[in-house]
Write a structure and sequence with these properties.
The chain has 227 residues and is of the alpha+beta class. The protein has 2 helices and 12 strands, in the order αββββββββββββα. It has a 5-stranded antiparallel beta sheet with strand order 1-4-11-6-7, with no helix packed on it. A 5-stranded antiparallel beta sheet has the order 2-3-12-5-10, with no helix packed on it.
Amino acid sequence: MEFGRVCSVSRWSCWFAGVFFSVVISVPAQNLLQNGNFEEDGGSFAGWTVNPSETDLYSANPAIASDGINDGYYARFTYDPNGPDTLSQTLSTIPGTIYDVAFSVEDGSGHNFETELTFGNSTDDLAPTFETGPGDYLEGWTNLNFDFTATSPETELSFTVLADTGSEFGVDNVSAMPEPAPEPASSICLVSGIVGLLLTRFSYCHRNSRPSQCLRPPRPGQGDLPK
């Protein structure tokens, strides 16, 4: 094989590898949840499981309500004398992978009895998030993020709410996405460094030796790179 072709193949291989891995790293993660903004079919729980189940989406608890984020639809929990209500969806997950769960919520009067987010075996109480001081609570919509580690191939994400009388709890724009792994980028840095050293060696050898000598290690004291 000619030396020039060796260098050409090496350079093109590195270029294509860099482009390929750059594309892989730059691809954004996809939301694993279906209908996380409750906008499907003009406002619905498509993809979600509601407990207790109701046939009338606009009088159930939770119910589909308007005036959500960007004037869209959202899931609205109100007081239920029969106990907590649950909105859930089962996701395909990879054990050991960290998932970023993000959503928008509004807590009505800020004194609901129970507001919990569950991801698999992990549960977070959302109530303290709205407390800004004794008797003071956040008003309007608030964006929240939580990181959870999956422990099984299928993971249930759920909101369990028992709203107070005269209050409500709203949920909108729910997403669950795997956090990107840093290993590919680290590998590119390592490979790029090795390839850079090799190309430097070949380039210097090509300028100072016969092409055939570039394909074998230099003898002691010969072919040293300039300092």
